[in-house]
TrEMBL record:
The keyword Heme applies. One of its GO terms (biological process) is cytochrome complex assembly. This is Succinate dehydrogenase hydrophobic membrane anchor subunit. Keywords: Cell inner membrane, Cell membrane, Electron transport, Heme, Iron, Membrane, Metal-binding, Transmembrane, Transmembrane helix, Transport, Tricarboxylic acid cycle. One of its GO terms (molecular function) is electron transfer activity. One of its GO terms (cellular component) is plasma membrane. It is a multi-pass membrane protein. Pathway: Carbohydrate metabolism; tricarboxylic acid cycle. Membrane-anchoring subunit of succinate dehydrogenase (SDH). CDD domains: SQR_TypeA_SdhD_like (cd03500). Its cofactor is heme.
Length: 154
């Protein structure tokens, strides 16, 4: 009886089942893998910057209220910072859940349904979050009660 042999790793012989097709799913998965690593690094910077400014600078957690958020979002810098954090966190998390769905959903219909729900939820949260960040008005016109102290009567 012949003993099966395994070719040396760098022998140049390639098993056809494990080669990547050009333009196939492998390119998307590689981009998704790379996105997870890069977005993770950027998210660490964004989140720790967010936590430092909100918790360590000034009066710390006791200063966080409606006025604090209104003051932060009056600056385009903090609007962009929070927008990047929202978008990257949502896309990073969505990509991770997509991978889990691909790994564990056995039927194609189940996989498609779960991913559709995931993508719809992601788009809704990103759109609503973006609208909140850019349309936030701490001093709405016509409001006469319960305005923050920095709002002038209109």
């Amino acid at each position: 009886m012949a003993t099966p042999t395994i070719d040396a790793p760098r022998s140049g012989k390639v098993d056809v089942k494990y080669t990547r097709r050009k333009g196939g799913k492998g390119n998307f998965e590689m981009a998704a893998w790379l996105f997870m690593r890069l977005s993770g690094v950027v998210l660490v910077v964004l989140i720790f910057g967010h936590l430092f400014v909100n918790l360590m600078v000034g009066d710390g957690i006791h200063a966080i209220d409606f006025g604090f958020v209104a003051g932060k979002w009056a600056s385009p810098f903090w609007q962009i910072w929070d927008l990047l954090m929202l978008w990257l966190a949502m896309l990073h998390g969505t990509n991770g859940v997509r991978t889990i769905i691909n790994d564990y959903a056995e039927r194609n219909a189940t996989r498609m349904t779960l991913k559709t729900v995931l993508y719809v939820a992601t788009v809704v949260i990103i759109v609503l979050g973006t609208l909140v960040i850019f349309t936030f008005d701490p001093c709405p016109a016509g409001a006469v009660t319960d305005l923050p102290s920095f709002c002038t009567a209109k």
